[in-house]
Specification:
170 residues; alpha+beta; Aminopeptidase; seven-stranded mixed β-sheet; 33% strand; globular; disordered N terminus
Length: 170
């Protein structure tokens, strides 16, 4: 039997209600024909060379790409590096037609669940920081060569005994 925190159950319920299309999630190969156009939304000033370099990085060990699909069409992607039970999100992007439907949030939650993560971190910008805060990340600002940025970190607690009993009753 699987156990989820109250927060995770809430996320699955609320995001599932927002999505109007049947969305599936699965690992994506770096040569998927739509991958470059989807992932470019998460790359600052994307060029063909930059996108190719990012996609090439996902051929290395412990690098993963998980896609969200609607009717077998790739509509969103999360790319991350996995070290033990910790993941660093390197890229996340949702096709414009599917934004604000909870798909990015679902990608994060599916990654946490499928890889049994206890910690997720990433770096982001002003444009995306509020998304991560809404998901539950703690974000700390810092400056780098790209300007104002944020380091975001999410600790995933182990379920407490009382939460497990409540979840089992659902």
């Amino acid at each position: 039997m699987e156990y989820f925190s109250k927060h995770t159950i809430y996320i699955f319920l609320t995001t599932g209600l927002k999505m109007k299309k049947n969305i599936t999630f699965k690992q994506v190969n770096t040569n998927h024909p739509l991958l470059g156009s989807i992932i470019s939304g998460s790359i600052g000033f994307p060029t063909v060379k930059k996108v190719d370099r990012v996609l090439q990085s996902y051929t290395q060990p412990n690098q993963f790409l998980i896609g969200a699909f609607a009717s077998d069409n790739l509509i969103a992607i999360i790319g991350f590096e996995l070290t033990g039970k910790q993941a660093i999100i390197k890229n996340i992007s949702v096709s414009n037609d599917f934004k604000r439907q909870g798909i990015g949030n679902c990608l994060i939650q599916k990654t946490i669940k499928n890889y049994a993560l206890n910690c997720v971190s990433l770096k982001t910008d002003d444009e995306s920081v509020n998304f991560y805060k809404k998901v539950g990340f703690k974000c700390t600002p810092f400056d780098d060569k790209h300007g104002n940025r944020y380091y975001c970190h999410l600790e995933i607690p182990l379920p407490e005994a009382s939460s497990i009993q409540q979840i089992n009753m659902l």
